[in-house]
What we know:
By secondary structure, this protein is α/β, with parallel strands linked by helices. It has 13 helices and 9 strands. It has helices at 3-21, 24-40, 43-56, 62-85, 91-94, 103-112, 126-135, 152-165, 176-183, 215-223, 253-270, 277-293, 300-306; strands at 98-101, 116-119, 140-143, 167-169, 187-190, 201-205, 208-212, 226-235, 239-247. The strands form 2 sheets. A 7-stranded mixed β-sheet has the order 1-9-8-2-5-3-4, sandwiched between helices. The mean pLDDT is 95.
Amino acid sequence: MKASGLSSLYYRFIAASVKLAGAGSRVERISNSVSALRGALSSSRNNLYNDHLKRVFPDRDEVWRKSVLSGYWRVHERNLFALFYLKNKVYADLSENTSWIGREHLDNAVANGKGVLLLVPHFGDERSLHVLLGMEGYPVDVITSRYSDMPRYARECRLGIGKKWNNLHFPDENPRWMYRTLQDGRTIHYASTAYGGPGGTWITNFGVPVLVPSAPWKLWKRTGCRIILASCSHSPDMGFSLRFTPVDPPEDQIAFAEVIGQATEKLASENPSQYEWKNLLIRHRETNTIARIGRIPVDEHKLEQLAEYADADPSRVLTLEGIPDSLS
């Protein structure tokens, strides 16, 4: 069977499992069982994650790293199960198992009227964050992939829940919609740990140079919007813990990006199993590829195609000073 067929079959299996399980506790037990299998079958990727964890947390031992990776796979899998668990629910069905930390910061930012830029790192369940906000009556505009490389059923599963509760936008749209949205006092959900592209900003994050988006700084400078670091971590029995932290950003573009990067590192240090270590692996590999080819492709997929196996080696760590001036 082709990979696309296997992908659709897998999503259908998850959909059927969630429907049969019903209660959140049973859904989570199934998800945890599947995650253990996924993790066991991903030894080569686990080796890369493990080497990054050694570098980022040099004082931690192997037992700790194994625990982090086990938790990482549980989060990875549960995020997929949440697509179907939330599908036919409203907030009243979830309120008893959903906690909010710093909600007053979000409400104050919304009430300010200058728009809110939610900077959401690859941590926990980013999709359920904007879905839960939509359920609770917060109008949120979301930048998301079209998932055009996925088969139709899987793509519809990925996008369907967002379409139901949020306004979805895609990277190939004219970015002027973001300015209009903030100027109208609305809220944007933005992945702060995404690929920065040719106009991005270089910072050191988790000990390696990464190219992060400059758009958040540009949006803030032009609109005066409020900046909130937002995350959604998992709690037991398909529960969620939403956290909102206000950011008072510095004027300088690089310093702005560094503050957001440091806040992401803090989140990962506090709850490392919830951080998407795959994102660090990708950003690190991209940096090595960019330095090797001497240019920054606009299309991240093109950059991925240009990558070589050695680019992902966790021991190949550049410094910001090692990034050619032509790429800075």
